[in-house]
Amino acid sequence: MMADSPPVTQEREAVLSVRNLTVAFGEKVVLDHLNLDIYRGEILGFVGASGAGKSVLMRTVLRLLPRRSGTIEILGADYDKVSEAERVTLDTRLGVLFQHGALFSALTVKENIQLPMREYLDLPKWLMDELAYLKIELVGLDADAADKYPSELSGGMIKRAALARALALDPDLLFLDEPTSGLDPIGAAEFDELIARLRDTLGLTVYMVTHDLDSLFSVCDRIAVLGQKRVLVEGSLDDMLACDDAWVRSYFRGKRARSIERPAAPAQNPVSD
Ligand SMILES: Nc1ncnc2c1ncn2[C@@H]1O[C@H](COP(=O)(O)OP(=O)(O)OP(=O)(O)O)[C@@H](O)[C@H]1O
């Protein structure tokens, strides 16, 4: 680097920034001044005990639940400070895969994928058909899945079809609520690979609520743990292993975790011969 060139700063761009978020149902406070950032291009694994508030956080960010206080910024824009039209645009930047797929049973796969397009875009039918087939291919389904109803699909195919719908509007940030639950280990590993591939090819940012240690170990770049109504610890797997919290310890260092083969850590200071 030339002596007089400016220092290179690699600021990570936060796609989602949550600050001091408090959510309560009556007297019951579920999230209390929670802070969280998700950076562009990462796959963030979000874990926490059952009932800790993982779904509540996701639903609050998606504006499906009201918050008591705090700010939510998507792509640098504060939800509370933008116009309704801008808010709708922001909504299209978010794709969501709900826990049980949540496809409409009376609609075919193609029609399910086209729902967000109908809601937000004004496109001719031929173009919507073409886009739906593109998404179907993207998630690894055969083209003939397009005209099938959800009841005609396996669990793994339903997840993929729901993922295709979540990708309908080419979102920046993809929310996945326990995407591998209900899949067998091979189906789950394939789904994880698909998510990693989509991140790499589409430049997606992924927020993945999961209980699946395999997913956390294999595809997540960073992990955040929800506990005591806030993000208790966040960082790499090593940060989780170094954490002293009892729940984090038993989760990441328990018998189940020990039985999983972790990806080899890159060699530190390799010795040259
Ligand atoms: N609409 C609601 N009204 C009242 N309480 C709610 C509502 N939604 C969630 N809760 C409460 O908020 C708490 C957090 O629930 P949440 O579903 O977010 O947990 P979770 O971490 O996603 O759990 P799991 O891993 O079991 O899915 C729970 O105690 C739940 O009962």
TrEMBL record:
Source organism: Rhizobium daejeonense
Any one GO MF annotation of this record: ATP hydrolysis activity
Domain ABC transporter stretches: 16-253
SUPFAM superfamilies tied to this protein: P-loop containing nucleoside triphosphate hydrolases (SSF52540)
Protein name in UniProt: ABC transporter ATP-binding protein
Keyword Membrane: no
Alphabetical list of PANTHER family matching this protein: PROTEIN TRIGALACTOSYLDIACYLGLYCEROL 3, CHLOROPLASTIC (PTHR43023:SF3)
UniProt KW keywords: ATP-binding, Nucleotide-binding, Transport
Keyword Magnesium: no
Annotated SMART domains: AAA
InterPro entries: AAA+_ATPase (IPR003593), ABC_transporter-like_ATP-bd (IPR003439), ABC_transporter-like_CS (IPR017871), P-loop_NTPase (IPR027417)
Similarity field: Belongs to the ABC transporter superfamily.
